[in-house]
């Protein structure tokens, strides 16, 4: 039976709720560029089925012929502006880890379980989140931090997880991935990992059937829980009440 050797947080949203801050940053970038675009909560909710900020902007452009004058070059510029706006917002908005995150990391470290962060977002975004959480969750506690610059294909491709596992020196059956969206969850499943879904606030209504365990947050999860989950290799999601 495989032994649990690592817990991998698979997205910024598994650590802190930042989705609406991201939405605000997109809208500020659009306004800065002189576009009359505005993503309300419902629009952004729908766009979250698409992974990657530039891909969301492109999908929004392509959905309406009236937006066709927004070039791919401009989309790249908009995404860069959004990143800057996001970092500025984070510097001025109090941010806290999601419930149970710090406690789970403490528990894992105490039991010599490696903890990693494996995302397909940019290094700049990760640095901004790290700075915002520095007093509560120093990112140097992660044995590995994988960002989009390390891999060829973003999620839902499994590249980020394959790379992360190699850097940790373990195999997929020795780790558990924690994800907050179905798109990212599929990357972990394709890489062969046991998965825990902790849905973000904006995607709580999505279908996480592929997860091995679904929890509203990470409160009260223990290494014993995780080891049992890994050993069971459940094929059907279980709603776990603690």
Summarize the structure.
This protein is an alpha/beta fold and 242 residues long.
What would the keywords be for this entry?
DNA polymerase, domain 1, single chain, Rossmann fold, alpha/beta, 2 domains, globular, about 240 residues, seven-stranded parallel sheet
Tally of helical segments: 10
- Going by CATH, the architecture of the largest domain would be 3-Layer(aba) Sandwich
What general form does the structure show? globular
Rg, please?
18 Å
Count of strand segments: 7
Chart the SSEs and their pairings:
Elements: E1 6-9, H1 12-15, H2 19-32, H3 41-47, H4 53-62, H5 72-92, H6 101-110, E2 114-118, H7 123-132, E3 144-146, H8 159-168, E4 175-179, H9 182-190, E5 194-197, E6 213-214, H10 223-232, E7 238-239
Parallel strand pairs: 1-2, 1-4, 2-3, 4-5, 5-6, 6-7
Helix pairs in contact: 2-5, 4-5, 5-7
Q: Your description of this structure?
A:
This protein is an alpha/beta fold. It folds into two domains: 6-16 and 96-239, HAD superfamily/HAD-like (Rossmann fold, 3-Layer(aba) Sandwich); 19-92, Putative phosphatase, domain 2 (DNA polymerase, domain 1). 43% of the residues lie in helices and 10% in strands. The chain contains ten helices and seven strands. It has helices at residues 12-15, 19-32, 41-47, 53-62, 72-92, 101-110, 123-132, 159-168, 182-190, 223-232, and strands at 6-9, 114-118, 144-146, 175-179, 194-197, 213-214, 238-239. The protein has a seven-stranded parallel β-sheet with strand order 3-2-1-4-5-6-7, sandwiched between helices. Helix 9 links the parallel strand 4 (175-179) and strand 5. Helix 4 (53-62) crosses helix 5 (72-92) and helix 5 packs parallel to helix 7 (123-132).
